[in-house]
Amino acid sequence: MVSAVEDFGISNLKLKDMIDFCKDIDIKGFLSDVKQALLSALDTEYEKNPFEGAAAVPKRTVRVLDTASSASAGSSDGLPREDITAKITPTLLKNLGSPDWKVRLESIDAITKIVEEANKRIQPTGTADLFSALRGRLYDSNKNLVMATLSTIGSLASAMGPSVEKSSKGILVDVLKCLGDNKKHMRECTLTALDSWVAAAQLDKMVPYIIVSLGDQKTGSEG
């Protein structure tokens, strides 16, 4: 106890709890090896001379954060994110819509590589146009490219974190539509992308898009 006070001081102790502890008669149990006569003498002296000395100066300083600050710190790990604006070139965006499926695939793979080179941590700057271009690939006639696009979108969500929800311009609705594909592998790729999205932006941010997607499916089935 003495060592803890000397090391950390008393600034982080709750005063009421400390007082209640010290008032507890069982505290004398810590002095079980002291003779009764000496205990009686100590009690008498304590009553005569209550402690009025200076508090021990702590050897270490412990910073205490309030609940709000702690919650705020928990929402971001503080690690840097890379600005990939310069890498999202007009040529890259144009090639995503190329009539040659090989060029389209190369462009999708190039985006994944950009994310990996940024250690999978990117800023939202410049990604709005990128998501707009990727949206078209979710309706590609080549299903393999659609699945590659879903994987890339999931990677972008993981790399961007919470900011992906505002930068993606509603592409989540288009992602959700892929759940209706008759191929099991396509549905699995979609779920993987959605898992990444939930981890990045939280489920409550996705609810409006889910509602829109369900509404579109209902309209399609009735129409």
UniProtKB/TrEMBL annotation:
Keywords: Repeat. Signal peptide: none annotated. This is TOG domain-containing protein. InterPro entries: ARM-like, ARM-type_fold, HEAT, TOG, XMAP215. Residues 77-222 form the TOG domain. The lineage of its organism: Eukaryota, Viridiplantae, Streptophyta, Embryophyta, Tracheophyta. Coiled coil: none annotated. One of its GO terms (biological process) is spindle organization. One of its GO terms (molecular function) is microtubule plus-end binding.
